[in-house]
Amino acid sequence: MTYTALLSAGTEDLKELLSNGKSYSVPPYQRDYSWKDEHWEDLWEDLTTIEANREDHYMGAIVLESGERKQFRVIDGQQRMATLSILILACVDFLYGLANEGMDTTDNEQRAALLESSYLGSKDPTSLRITPKLKLNANDDDFFQLNLAQRKPPQGGVRGLRDSEKLLWDCFQFFKGKVREKFSSQKKGEEVAAFVGEIVTERLVFISVRVQDQLSAYTVFETLNARGLELTETDLLKNYLLSLADRLSKSQMDPVLKQWARITARVGIASFPEFLRHHLNSRREYVRQKQLFKTIKRDITTLDHVFALLDWLEKDAAWFEGLGDYTSQFWLDYPGAKEQVRVLNLFNVSQFTPLVLAAKDVFTSPQDLVEMLRYCAVLSVRFNGVSRRSTHILEEIYNRAALEVRRGTASTLTAVRQALRPIYIPDEEFEADFSALRLRSRGTSGKRLRYLLARIEKQISRADISDEAMTATIEHVLPENPGEIGWEHYSAEAHERSYERIGNYSLLERGLNSQQASNAPFAQKQSVYVQSQYQTSKDLTQYTDWTEETVAKRQADMARIAKSVWSLTI
After folding, report:
1. What is the Cα 403 distance to its own chain's centre?
2. Region 71-98: what's the mean pLDDT?
3. Cα–Cα distance for residue pair 140/116, rounded to 1 Å
């Protein structure tokens, strides 16, 4: 069997990376320079330590995509490479300053020129122009080459600079100050040159990972789980998509980058891969997480594909953002949707997203879309919240339903419900699962418990009640810490089995709970429950005692009510 090398890796210092005519370019669409004071301080402290103990210092991995001859694209590591280049520039600037002061003028000029040609850029013998060792992205490179590399202050001052340009300039000023502070007392050019040649470029060690293409870079990223890498999964997806736009000029690329920025600002950098997968799963056969990059690389192969994908993503981004935040103003145009999205957020469910992204392109009525969100909320309470089935099947069923919607085979709400039948927990199973449900009364679990109790209360009393708006507390009928009197019939094991069962909870006004109920005996609590406005508490007066069997019977009664509360006609 023939194997294709996925990558090559080796340990290299900066001198080895920049030797023998090698050059590096940051793809024009990669993120801008972003290191700040704390990063520069850390690097300088590292160099001070290295100089003192003469030991190598590991700088992490850099990932390079091999190009023509000795040219490489920097997939990961541009912040470190740019910063080290600027540090060397600060040393060059100091040497030229010594020469201008008349201190070993010829030698220091020669030292400065050698450092420039070795680590920053050398003159092409044909054109006599400087060929830089490192080119930054589309936004930063002009400033880097025309100002920093020439050590020229920006025209018009710092105020007119973009954020990343200002950081580049501030970095240069930071290291100029550190170099001046370090060498001003002796002012010996040979010490400056030795610092660069023996410390900066020889003692800082990188793991150089060289890959053949973006797919290999992505595979490396997944394999290493991004440990030690600066790149995120979103960066790699962006790098591939916009590598197809390499031939665009800067003015043509700018709108593409702005569109990308708008999309990621809406969905969040960390959430972008999830968003992209939901988008794909709303339009094509099911894509698993591990297949995401390969699918994109296979399906998006031209610049027109990139433009079309970005347009689709921008339309879906507003919905994705809204689906993740029920308080969003987005839902003002969809009366009733906020409550359904709130439930989906409460139970931390997202697998339904492809169906909604497909439906919003096909169903024109806002009320139809709200009703579809209700389906998803009911399914989630049954499947995720109560029955707690494996979520593996959810994405596949929602994907199939989304495709049926797009193909027109599920063009009505009834047809959509039928498409979702495989993940609708049947009544008898749901009732049994609810009868056995246990939930803690604190944290996220407590919020879900509060929601379930409020909906059951609403069903029983027909009162307009919401777990969000009500001021009730969650009452343990059998206390979490029962008093010494009235609960002797509960062994420690029986208490453990019962006190977090749904049947042992009720809603109770805060004043009644804290002042009168608390951990009192059941008979005493009943005199408090009868004063409550909540029917689920009032009904507790019908029981003569509170045993394990009573808790189980009450929970079974609640389960029958729950079956009708969270119900779809399927």
Report:
1. 27
2. 92
3. 20
